[in-house]
Amino acid sequence: MPLTPISKRLSGPLTPRGCTNVYGSRFASEHMPTDRLPEDEMPKEAAYRMITDDLVLDGIPMLNLASFCTTYMEEEAEKLIFESANKNVIDHEEYPRSVELEQRCLRILANLFHSPEQNGQTTAIGTACIGSSEAIMLATLAMKKRWKNQRKAAGKDASQPNIIMSTGVQVCWEKAAAYFEIEEKLVPCTETRYVIDPAQAVDLVDENTIGICAILGTTYTGQYEDVKQINDLLVQRGLDTPIHVDAASGGFVAPFVNPGLVWDFQLSNVVSINVSGHKYGLVYPGIGWALWRSADYLPQELIFNINYLGADQLNFTFNFSKPASHIIAQYYQMIRLGRRGYHAIMGNLTRTADYLAAHLQNMGFFIMSEGSGKGLPVVAFRLSTSQSLFFDEFALSHKLRERGWIVPAYTMAADCEKMSMMRVVVREDFTQSRCDSLIRDIELALNALAGDEMRRVQRYQAYVRRLRSGSYQLLMLSRFVSSHMVPEKMGVEQRCIEVTPLITPPPEEA
Ligand SMILES: Cc1ncc(COP(=O)(O)O)c(C=O)c1O
Q1: Atom 16 of ligand 1 has which residue's CA nearest to it?
Q2: Whole-model pTM?
């Protein structure tokens, strides 16, 4: 007799007549919709429970040390986000106070980044974006349009724009170059230098260069590129090539941890800066900021005047609608923390990063990032040859995942992509005691991997010994060898060594 699916026999809505418990309802015994809108409604309790249960399999954000994005905010900030979740900040007429908060955040950032002032007012203009990627796209487009306008005004060809950057840029720069048809002139990273070489960058400048990108905190190692050196070289050579500073992470770190570092609008050629509010700006993802030194650097063609929302308003973002909630949350963090609060948090993060780097170094790892606040609170490291290990960073990353930690392993930028490495982004909620747990788990993971390797080697050795001793195994081995075309002139012993790694590992010894 064919079995009736249990869902058919027990189907029915969540009503007092049926089982009111979500797990007793048909929804618990049916597949969740994956590619079609369901015909019927689902009770809200069931929808909520099914989705919550599904999301349990996501990683735990606090243990996700791969991400630069904020994973903790105070309850009051979360409340503000929730309470303003239904406001679209593009509706300037309807939400003038939210728009005012965006302007306040921009003025605060302009001041933090030493924008020039006229009559006590900043000359900078800017906008909130969905993240640094959008801000970088806008800034790149602005540099391209400005260059094009200048070329046209001089009666020169404007069909071959190029942009100079290191191979260590975040992918959004490659996107910007591809989307806006700009040639990338890349300064290679090397196995000992993971940031741009200022002299090489400036040497690449030609009449078609729309600008140079300098990164304040690279994604790979968190190091700061030397913006001042690039600026000084340009000035020395009488070049007015614009610099855009990608301060996605460093914009909210350097001013507090390393206030003496000169990287921002204090430098004459820095025309625009982006910073992610959702990284060290300490707001949940999606908010970034784009700022230009003055309106002169944002060509008019990029600014649209719209009036169909009830009043004239200027707009120069890619997206039209945008949540007000993250702008409000950014303003909350700014007034709640002030300079002292950001300084205290970023100072702690820097100390924790240094503490972690010191422990990793003691374990024999090679540290690639810079400590003591000379870079982001990020620890980039790799296994060193002195550790004489059989496994790589990817295996270690995988092992740590078993304990819930997400510590990514990845390969370095183009030109040194053979180099694999790992990175821990120290964020606000990564306290010293959580860091201690990570250190312990890295030690355990290293021991476990070394033990696994040793057992595997012993199993192979026993296997090879068995193969050598039995005639049947030798027959099988010789078949295997000939089917894998191992050169005939090799002796059996040599063949054993050559082919053993190709054979499926033997089962674990009892
Ligand atoms: C240096 C740098 N620039 C740009 C970005 C892109 O930022 P977002 O994720 O805010 O779009 C990142 C992201 O990690 C980054 O590290």
Answers
A1: 219
A2: 0.87
